[in-house]
Design a protein that fits this description.
mainly beta
Amino acid sequence: TGNSCDGGGGISSTGSLTVNGYSVISGNTAAFGGGGIDNGGTLIIDQSTIAGNKASTNGAGIRNFSGTLTMTASTVSGNQAFRSGGGVYNYTATAKITNSTISGNQADTGGYSGGGIQNGDAGSTYINTNLTLLNDTIYNNSSSSPGANLYSNNFNATMSTQNTIFANANGNGSQDIAGYVSSQGYNLIQNPTGVSGFVGTDI
C-alpha cells in the first residue's frame, strides 16, 4: 500500500506471481500503467482485493500487458485510470475472471472507455487479446465514453461472458458494454445499448 513507480505502483511482474490468502493491494500509483499490479508474465489472483490504486495511463487496478491473468473470488474496486481500464486493462494478453466483483472503478478524461474493464485497444492490429468472464458482477464503473463497465475492441480482441451481471454504468459511458461480446448465456445487462452478441437466455 502507498507505493509509487513508473509502471506497477504496487507490484511489477514479468515472471510467475500468485496473490492469494486475502491479500490487499491498495493506494498505489503508477506514472504509466498498472497502478496496483503491472503484469507481463503469469499472474494468479485468488480471494484478494485490488482497490484504490491510480495510473496516469491504463490499468489502474491491474494492467495485463502481454501476460496471462487468472483471477478468482476477488474484488477490484475504486481504482482510477486517467486513460482506459480503470479496474482491469487487458491488452495483447489473456485473462479469465471468475466469481469476482469489479466495481466503482473509473476511466477518466479525454474520451476513454472501459471504466471497469478494457479488453484490447483502439487502433491496434494485435489480435491475441482474449477475455473470459464467468459468474462475475461488473457494476457502478464510470468512463467518459461508451462502455463504462466493459469495453471490448471489435477488431483486435475477443471475449466471452456467462452468468455475469452488468449494471449501473456511470458517466458518458452509461451504456454497460461497448463492442462485440460472445455470450455463453445467462447474463444480466441493465443497459445493452451499443453491444452485440447476446443470446435469448440473457436479459
